[in-house]
């Protein structure tokens, strides 16, 4: 597969606890903090939020692609992605994801079908397939 684009992001410092994030083009520049729910300050973004943002954006693109292929006209699109950091009994950390898709202009069955199609083609979905539990919920609004 030929490369279409490579994102380059550097994280320095303490990683998720006070680290600095910057993309090579300077458009992404932020700090990281441990969420309050995990005992941190919660005063900056965290890796789970960044993953949720990237996956959400990519997933909506895949939904629109699936709708276009099926000649389905969408009047609105939204996805709320939940990334959960889990701590197993073995002491290891893992992730789980829930993608809550909301589509306007279609019935619930079409929304479910478009969500399933997007989950097959979205690069984030492909990258996590078989590695973490993922649930796609689709509703018509």
Number of strands: 6
Rg result: 17 Å
Task: Give, in order, the helices and strands.
Answer: EEEHEEHHE
| Shape, per Cα inertia axes | globular
pLDDT < 50 stretches: none
Task: Tell me what the structure shows.
- The protein is 30% helix and 30% strand.
- By secondary structure, the chain is α+β, with helices and mostly antiparallel strands.
- Helix 1 packs across helix 2 (108-121).
- It is globular, with a radius of gyration of 17 Å.
- The chain is built from three helices and six strands, in the order βββαββααβ.
Entry keywords:
141 residues; alpha+beta; three-stranded mixed sheet
Give the SSE map.
Layout: E1 9-12, E2 20-23, E3 29-31, H1 47-69, E4 76-87, E5 93-104, H2 108-121, H3 123-128, E6 134-140
Parallel strand pairs: 5-6
Antiparallel strand pairs: 1-2, 2-3, 4-5
Helix pairs in contact: 1-2
Quick summary:
The protein is of the alpha+beta class. Helices cover 30% and strands 30% of the residues. Strands 1-2-3 form a 3-stranded antiparallel β-sheet, with no helix packed on it. A 3-stranded mixed β-sheet has the order 4-5-6.
């Amino acid at each position: 597969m030929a490369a279409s684009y490579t994102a380059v992001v550097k994280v320095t410092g303490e990683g998720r606890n006070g680290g600095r994030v910057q993309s090579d083009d300077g458009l992404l520049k932020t700090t990281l903090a441990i969420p309050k729910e995990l005992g941190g300050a919660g005063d900056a973004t965290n890796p789970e939020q960044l993953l949720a943002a990237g996956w959400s954006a990519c997933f909506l693109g895949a939904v629109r692609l699936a709708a276009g292929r099926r000649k389905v006209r969408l009047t609105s699109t939204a996805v709320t992605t939940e990334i959960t950091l889990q701590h197993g009994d073995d002491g290891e950390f893992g992730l789980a994801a829930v993608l809550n898709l909301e589509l306007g202009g279609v019935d619930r069955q079409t929304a479910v079908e478009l969500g399933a199609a997007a989950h097959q083609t979205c690069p984030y979905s492909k990258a996590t397939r078989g590695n973490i539990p993922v649930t796609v919920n689709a509703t018509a609004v």
